[in-house]
Design brief:
Layout: E1 13-16, H1 19-31, H2 38-60, E2 73-78, E3 83-88, H3 95-103, H4 110-115, H5 121-131, E4 142-150, E5 159-164, E6 169-175, E7 181-188, H6 198-208, E8 216-224, E9 229-238, H7 255-266, E10 274-280, E11 286-292, E12 309-313, E13 316-322, E14 334-339, H8 348-353, H9 355-378, H10 380-394, H11 397-400, H12 405-411, E15 413-416, E16 426-427, H13 428-433, E17 441-446, H14 450-454, H15 460-465, E18 470-472, H16 475-481, E19 486-487, E20 490-494, H17 508-520, H18 522-532, E21 538-541, E22 550-553, H19 561-569, E23 580-583, H20 588-595, H21 598-615, H22 623-635
Parallel strand pairs: 2-8, 12-14, 17-18, 17-20, 21-23
Antiparallel strand pairs: 1-6, 2-3, 3-7, 4-5, 4-7, 5-6, 8-9, 10-11, 11-14, 12-13, 15-16, 15-18, 19-20, 22-23
Helix pairs in contact: 1-5, 9-10, 21-22
């Protein structure tokens, strides 16, 4: 298979953008027009990342520095040509890097991103911000963009020139480039000439990029009284503070600076929900600046996507997506961890085995959980936003993080029969505070949707007696509920498992009546079991039903029907357990079943079973037989 390098030459090669890139360029040009200045933030952020990567690579290979160790980002303007140029002396790119990284969007979640676009410019602008577009933002203000780059360690003749007008094509060729790094030149549109005003540019840099560690330099300018204009001097000035924001005292950092730094490390265009900034001293010394985003990224549930925070060692960038510094269930957290203890040559393998990393991880988890707890207690609107975006992921921690399980359980939210709507806003603590006198268990039901859970026949007796039931409707719920047995000393009990025992809510007369009814219906129960054969494990009389004739339950330690269906849908082989059919002795269908003759009894029993399967959200093995059987019985009435 040939690579782009094999076709590289000094003669420009014209290529077409990936289809998604064409769509993205059009969306950006039209959707982000009102906030065009962010292009500079994106390009400076890219330049900063490139320098960070060079610093890290040069630790193992100092030759990459090429006798140029003064790392910086330069912003230059040419008023006559109407151009703006952003230059870095970072890691640079090869020919293949340019074709792959600039011509395509090689990331998961791309298809889902475009599927969610609405055509509404404001909404689409927010979606673009979540997706992250970086380099392509240059076309918001440019008629044409030129990129010159050379990878560190490569000869001068291995430079690459990339050019595009953002019209669906780009050209790429080899050129001489003496210095390593990347230079992006924007040929500004007529209505974007404000961005060749040095005062305007300096204001934007200080607004969005003051936190960048590397110096961002521009030529000094002074007012020339004779020319009545700003005149550029042959002298550099550093525009930003050029210091690691996380290393500064919290009292010296403005809220706006925290927010802009978040946008830099996350490539999100919106403000974070909250953040934690702390310096930890003692046996392990590190600084953390961790953020909770306001929206989930598109690739949050993509298995192959790396998530994590940026790792620095003594302010030297080491790696992006250091996933070992936080557990998987907190993979949405963005930010920086800067350690004083780890070696500069730390690798992902070392991170896996390091006790220092374990200590950092434990401390950072506690900080993040405290941040989320503060939202839950004091900023409920923000917590609702957090839970809507990340609740599904957060619940994974209940099966992974045993040390913090009690804290996690207090943060779990669910829908409930108490409110009757699908809002996940009831905590386990809320539930316990409303438990009826004598109630010993926390009751819950699972389903593949709120509609399925809220209409489950298993809820009928609980509604009748005014007992609250929590409703869990996400796939992860089946997983963690199988591992967590209790909360605050109260057992978590599925309403669809085991024999129903409402204890204090049934008086002696009621219990005796139930026992009498069960004894009277023994012959009918045995006939139904014989008719259904190996479809069921058992048939029994129940008093958990009010409006439904029958329902299916499983034994206490078996997989729920909902979990079985999920595993089958995922292609997993399971030893399916046989359900227990429970019948409602007060229902008219059961009265009709008593009168059925032998010829029809089997059809009635099967109809009862199939209805119970459907009522709990299951699928029939043979829907045609069900319809035929039902039609036959209807015509005999």
């Amino acid at each position: 298979m040939s690579t782009a390098t094999e076709h590289a030459s000094a003669t420009p090669q014209t290529m077409a953008f990936q289809t998604e890139v064409k769509q993205l360029l059009q969306l950006m040009i039209h959707s982000l027009y009102s906030n065009r200045e962010i292009f500079l933030r994106e390009l400076v952020s890219n330049a900063s990342d490139a320098i960070d990567k060079l610093r890290f690579e040069a630790l193992a290979n100092p030759a990459l520095n090429e006798n140029d160790t003064e790392l910086k980002i330069r912003v230059a303007i040419d008023k006559e040509k109407g151009t703006l140029t952003i230059t870095d002396n970072g890691i640079g790119m090869t020919y293949d890097d340019v074709v792959t990284n600039i011509g395509t969007i090689a990331r998961s979640g791309t298809k889902e991103f475009f599927a969610r676009l609405t055509g509404d410019q404001q909404k689409d602008a927010n979606l673009i911000g979540q997706f992250g577009v970086g380099f392509y933002s240059a076309f918001i203000v440019s008629d044409k963009v030129e990129l010159r780059t050379r990878a560190a360690g490569q000869p001068a003749g291995e430079g690459v020139l990339w050019t595009s007008a953002g019209d669906g094509e780009f050209s790429v060729s080899k050129v001489d480039k003496p210095g390593r790094g990347t230079e992006v030149t924007l040929f500004l549109k007529d209505d974007a000439k404000e961005f060749i005003d040095d005062w305007r540019l300096k204001a934007i840099i200080r607004k969005y990029s003051d936190h960048i560690q590397m110096p961002i330099v521009m030529k000094k300018s002074e007012w020339d009284q004779e020319k009545q204009a700003q005149v550029e001097k042959d002298e550099d000035e550093t525009i930003n503070k050029a210091s690691a924001l996380w290393a500064r005292a919290k009292s010296d950092i403005k809220e706006e600076e925290y927010e802009e730094f978040y946008k830099h490390v996350s490539h999100d265009w919106e403000k974070p929900l909250a953040w934690s900034h702390a310096r930890v001293e003692g046996r392990h010394e590190y600084t953390e600046l961790l953020y909770l985003p306001g929206k989930a990224p598109f690739d949050l549930f993509e298995r192959d996507t790396k998530h994590g925070v940026k790792l620095y060692v003594r302010r030297v960038f080491i790696m992006d997506d250091a996933e070992h510094l936080l557990p998987r269930y907190l993979r949405f957290v963005k930010g920086v961890i800067d350690s004083n203890d780890l070696p500069l040559n730390v690798s992902r393998e070392i991170l896996q085995e390091s006790k220092d990393v374990d200590a950092i991880k434990s401390g950072c988890v506690k900080k993040v959980l405290s941040l989320i707890e503060d939202l839950a207690e004091n900023q409920k609107d923000k917590f609702t936003t957090f839970w809507s975006a990340f609740g599904r992921v957060f619940k994974e921690g209940l099966g992974e993080d045993f040390a913090n399980r009690e804290r996690l359980l207090k943060l779990i939210r669910a829908a409930s029969t108490h409110s009757g709507d699908d809002a996940q806003n009831v905590s386990l603590t809320d539930y316990v505070s409303r438990m009826k006198h004598g109630q010993e268990k926390i009751y819950y039901v699972t389903g593949d949707s709120f509609a399925a859970a809220s209409n489950s026949p298993h809820l009928e007796v609980f509604r009748k007696k005014g007992i609250e039931v929590l409703m869990f409707t996400e796939p992860v719920d089946e997983w963690w509920l199988g591992q967590v047995e209790e909360f605050d000393g109260k057992k978590l009990q599925s309403v669809a498992k085991g024999d129903l025992d409402l204890g204090a809510f049934e008086d002696e007369a009621e219990k005796k009546e139930q026992e009498k009814t069960a004894e009277e219906l023994k012959p009918l129960v045995e006939r139904i079991k014989t008719a259904l054969g190996d479809k069921v494990k058992e048939v029994r009389v129940t008093h958990r039903l009010v409006d439904s004739p029958a329902c299916l339950v499983v034994d206490e330690n078996e997989l729920s029907g909902n979990l079985e269906r999920m595993l089958k849908a995922a292609g997993q082989k399971i030893n399916a357990s046989k359900p227990i059919l429970e019948i409602n002795p007060q229902h008219a269908v059961i009265d009709r079943l008593k009168l059925a003759d032998e010829a029809d009894f089997g059809d009635w029993a099967s109809l009862l079973f199939d209805q119970s399967v459907l009522a709990e959200g299951g699928q029939l093995e043979n829907p045609a037989d069900f319809v035929k059987r039902m039609n036959t019985l209807m015509l005999k009435r």
